[in-house]
Amino acid sequence: MPQLPLTRRALAAAAAGLALPASARAQQDWPRKPIRLIVAFAPGGATDVQARLVAERLGARIGQPVVVENRAGAAGIIGTEAVAHAAPDGYTLLQGTISTHAMNVPLYGSKLSYDPNKDFSPIIRITTGFNLLVVHPSVEARDVAGLIALAKRNPGKLAYGSGGNGTSTHLAAEMFKTMAGVELLHVPFRSTAPAATALTSGEIQLMFDTSVSSLPLVRDGRVRALAVTSAERAKDLPDLPAVAETVPGFEMGTWTGLYGPPGMPGPLVEKIRAATAEVMREPDLIARLATLGTVPFLAGPEEFADYQQAEIARWTKVVRDARIVMD
Questions:
Q1: What is the DSSP string of 15-28?
Q2: What is the per-residue pLDDT across 12-42, written as a single tens digit (0 to 9) for each?
Q3: How far is CA 272 from CA 74, 289, 295, 307, in A?
């Protein structure tokens, strides 16, 4: 077959492109404009800090800004719901979390305004992390066993803070109460920041705080860390035991991932997944995440969806065992 002149070949290619459906052309051209990355929590928290680190590098890789937009409120429901109703064109994404896509299911049940399984397109699971069990320096307990013994001698008198009812900092403590057989007083705050402030002032005695919030306080000696909530000791904190070493089976590993609105085309999902996966392998990002107590935890759409289902089942049991009811 004779070769077409360059100009004719270019015209033929253009004509073939025009013959494609508009949606297919849009997928090929993505991204043509900035992308919104919705974070369903307030600025400065663990999810927000991580999202900004990833967004900056992802934007540089794809050639368009990835702009973090905080839509906080109602345990992450407000921002999460907004993405469920967005166009599936790849220009609105969600930094989903263990709270938005696992814990909220048993906590809110039929009151939840979105279905985490049907109303989103899972793109890529990106990180896993842990919380820290921290106490005020005045608390006499020096380890988890000592804290349990202290709590049993003073049932209901030790107060723990959380970032609010239904948050990971709340459910981790409730799981600890159930598994350790202790009574603790819950003092919820609007976010982890004021709860941490209350801990440093001695208003409350302990907290299962996010590593982003608590690690600087531990380093400054303002609170004392007793353990990590991951199943095993953290690589970067080898001298700090896991709660599970004293309370077998205890594990509270946080996680995040990227979601899009429902109905995103497979090729577009793959394009975003591949770009994000490359970003998550950058050594400088891995090092920065380590200082926040998180590490890459990559999984594609299908594996991510299966993992989410397992997490929903696990936290449903925790909520039922603790008899937590949200208004």
A1: HHHHHS-HHHHHHH
A2: 455 555 554 555 655 678 999 999 999 998 8
A3: 28, 20, 20, 19
